[in-house]
Amino acid sequence: xxxQNLKGNRMEKKIMSKRIVVILSLLxxxxxxxxxxxxxxxxxKFRWIPEKEGAGISEVIPGSALVVPFEFFVEKGISQVKIxxxxxxxxxxxxxxxxxxxxxxxxxxxxxxxxTLEKDAPPRRYSLEIIARDAATEKVxxxxxxxxxxxxxxxxxxxxxx
Length: 162
Description:
- The structure is a single chain.
- By secondary structure, the chain is α+β, with helices and mostly antiparallel strands.
- The protein has three helices and nine strands; from the N terminus they run H-E-E-E-E-H-E-E-E-E-E-H.
- It has helices at residues 2-33, 88-93, 154-158, and strands spanning 45-48, 58-60, 65-73, 80-85, 95-97, 101-103, 108-116, 125-134, 140-150.
- The strands form two sheets. It has a five-stranded mixed β-sheet.
- The longest helix is centred in the first third of the chain and has 32 residues, at 2-33.
- The protein starts with a helix and ends with a helix.
């Protein structure tokens, strides 16, 4: 009677380990995708909204404009948030934010990132790092990043999102 019981326990352990692997994989995928980033260092959480649902990276084609909305979920007591891009080189390339100071509504500081890159922008992957500060105290309350890739201009004519 014991060998059958051992076999049952092994099956249960296998099923349980598969469930754990699936759950951990999902958690890792969500955190890597950048949709919602959590940091114990900062109270404000960050989320960017991709142009195509489910996309893990924004695709920027030089010569074309792209708008990527994002938001910081802010604690009570903060009425305005100052947001800024940390990388000066990205600003020079043509990346900018809709506002430098955003009013908090319903616990969210909402803004947009604009990508207006010239045709000679280097094609590769980038990360737009954004810092949120309490406008009243200048204290950093959140950080977030929007992953994006710049593709060569000729892909625009092919409608390729490789």
